[in-house]
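Issue: ligand-bound run for adenosine-5'-triphosphate - logging full I/O for the record.

Environment: standard queue, default settings, no custom constraints.

Inputs:
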Amino acid sequence: MLRAFVRSAPSFARAARAHSTKAARFALFSPHALPIVRRTAVSATVVGSQPLLRQINFYSTEAALKDEEPKETLIEETEVVTGQEQHHEFKTETKKLLHIVANSLYSEKEIYHSELISNAADALEKLRHMQLIEQGFEATHPLEIHISVDKEKCTFIIQDFGIGMTEEELNQNLGTIAQSGSKAFLENLEKEGGSSMSKDKIIGQFGVGFYSTFMVGDKIKVYSRSARPGSKGYCWTTDGLGSYTLAEAEGVAVGTKIVIELREDSANFASKFTIDSVIKKYSNFVGFPIHLNGTKVNTVEPLWTQDKSAVTTDQHREFYRFVANAWDDPQFTLHYRTDAPMSIRSILYVPEHLLSNELLGQRLEPGVSLYSRKVLIQPKSKALLPEWLRFVKGVVDLEDLPLNVSRELLQDNVLSKLRNIMTARIIRWFHNESHQNPDKFNKFFLDFGQFLKEGICIDAQSKKDIAKLLRYETSATKEGELIGLKEYVERKKEGQERIYYLLTPKRKFAEESPYLEAFRKKDIEVSS
Ligand SMILES: Nc1ncnc2c1ncn2[C@@H]1O[C@H](COP(=O)(O)OP(=O)(O)OP(=O)(O)O)[C@@H](O)[C@H]1O
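Outputs:
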C-alpha cells in the first residue's frame, strides 16, 4: 500500500554538501542566487504496478528550482508476505562458515556492499543474456541497481531488476554457503553449448559474498521474483544465527530487493555520504547504472573494456581525471589489451605535469589500480608495477585473476608475471612515443626523467631497456656550443630547431649524473 511520507528536510547547506547537485552548488556559490527557501514535498513513484519509491524534496532556492530540483528517492518496503512461512535450519557447515565470513574473512566491512552490487550486476547481466537466447524473459524495469539508505531507520536497501530467484534458487543459493548460482549459471550455459556469454561478464564465483552482509546487519530480508515467466515472489529472511524463513509474498517486483537492518556499530552505512564514496571506490565500473537515494552515482564507463578505436579523446580526459584525481590532461595514453599470456585489459596515462608531492620531496603513491572483471581488487596497487613507474596512472583489469574468497589476497606468482608484462609494455610504449614524437618526449623527459633514472638504478631486469629512453643533460649546436636540454627544448619552441640537435654524449652524462655508479656498469648500453 502506498503510504504518504512527510519528512522535514535537513539544512540546505548539508544537502548541498551531501548531494553536490548542480542546483545546490549554484545556490551556495552563485552571486545571483536568490534567498534560500524551505520546501518540503510529498510524492511517490509508481514503478510497474507497485509503488516502490518515495521522494523527498529538499531545501532549494528560487533560482535553483528553475534549474534542477534536488530530491531524494528512497526505496519503500511495500511487499506483503502472504504465504505460510517455512522454517529452515542452515546446514552445520553453513553455520560455521557463516561465522567465519561475518567475522574474519574480510579486512574491511565496507566490502559487503561491493559484494551486493556485484550480485546485482550479475543478476542484470544474466537477465540480459537470457533475453537474448530465450523468449519470455521480459524486463519489467530498466536494467539498473538502486540503493537507498535511511539514517532514521538505520537501514540499507539494494534492489536490482535482474534475473531474480525462484523458491528453489533461494533455498539453494542463499540457504547454502559456498553455493554459487552464478558459477552454476555459466556452467549450465557451457554444458548446453551454443552460448556466447563471456565469463568476464559474471563476477560471482565462490558463493560466499552474500554472507558478508552479516558483518553489518542484524536482520536480512530478501524479496525476490524470478524473471522466468509465471514466477511468484518470495520473501527470505534470517538473523544469521542459524536459521532462515521462506514465504510467498505479494507485490514483489521481478529481480531482487535486499533489506538490511544495520547493527548499531555499522550505522555509518546508513549515511549517504559513506555509501557514495564506497560505491565510487569499489563499484564505479560495474556496467549498470547505480542510483543512490535516487541519484545516479557511477558516471564513469569502464573504458578499458571498450574497443580502442571507440574511445574518444574527451572520454579519455574524463577517465584520466577520474582515476588520477587530477585536473590536467594526459600527455600520453596507452589503451592496451591482450589475451595471451594473460587476459589483460588496461588503460594507462602519463599526466601532463608532474604535480605536487614528488616536487615537494614526498614520494608519489602508486597510480594504477588493479581490477578483475570491473571490480576493484587493489586500489593504487603497490605490487602491480615497479616503484619507479609510480607516476603512471590508470587501470589494469585481469580477467583470470585467481582470487581468494575474500577477493583481497592474490597469488604472488600471478602478480609478478603481470608486473613483468606490464613493465615491458610500458617501456615499449615510451619507446614508441620517443620515436613518433621526439619533441614531446624530450619535454616529458625534463619532468619525468628522474623516474627513468631511478628505474635504471633499482630495476635490474629492465635497466637496459630503460636506458634507451634516457635523454641527456646536454645538447650541442652544430657549432659545438653546449646547451642544456631545457634550453634546447625552448629554442626549438621558438622555431630554431634546424640549428640544434640532440647529442648523446655518454661521457658528459656520466660525469654529471648522480647515477654514475650504475651507469658505469658495462651492461648498460646507451643509444640515441
Ligand atoms: N541479487 C541477486 N539476484 C539473483 N541472484 C542472486 C542475487 N544475489 C545472490 N544471488 C544468488 O546467490 C548466489 C550466492 O551469492 P554469493 O554472493 O554468496 O556468491 P557468488 O556471487 O556466487 O560468489 P562470490 O562469493 O564470488 O561473490 C549467487 O551465485 C546467485 O545465484
